[in-house]
Amino acid sequence: MGDDGENALIAWLCAGVVAGLALVGKVHATGALPDDGPFRIVAMGALMVGPLLLFLAIGDQLIREVIQGKISRATYWTTVFGLAVSSFALLGIAGVDDLIAVFDKQG
Question: Do residues 1 and 67 make contact, with C-beta atoms less than 8 angstroms apart?
Fold first, then answer.
């Protein structure tokens, strides 16, 4: 994919990090995590890294599809933003203000 490969990686990383942060914030706000102990750190780490790895796996597959000529670059980028928007909607995040509100509930 050339230079688009780096842009694609950045797009998937950003989407994964934002989804992970939102997931950690929402789970923490519900009080579902234990107050102390190593399990809290492991659970928060898994909630943060899980979406990131999922987005990277999807991105890797789609990049292979572009390289093989099965989909166009336009279809690739449409899929990138479509998946990002739908995953944020599933997490209840429609904009930056919703993401900020998740962390304002912490204090």
Answer: yes
Determine the structural domain holding residue 43 and report its residue range. 3-104
Sole residue written with tokens 């599809």:
65
Q: How confident is the model at residue 4 (pLDDT cuts 50, 70, 90)?
A: low
The number of domains in the chain is: 1
Count the neighbouring beta carbons within 10 Å of the beta carbon of residue 54.
17
- Residues 95/97/99/101 CA torsion (nearest 10 deg): -150
Q: What is the pLDDT of residue 65?
A: 92
Query: What does the alpha-carbon distance between residue 69 and residue 98 come to, in Å, rounded to a whole number?
Result: 38
Euclidean distance between CA atoms 29 and 33, whole angstroms: 9
Instruction: Give CA–CA dist 23/29, Å, rounded.
Output: 10
The pLDDT, as a whole number, for residue 34 is 75
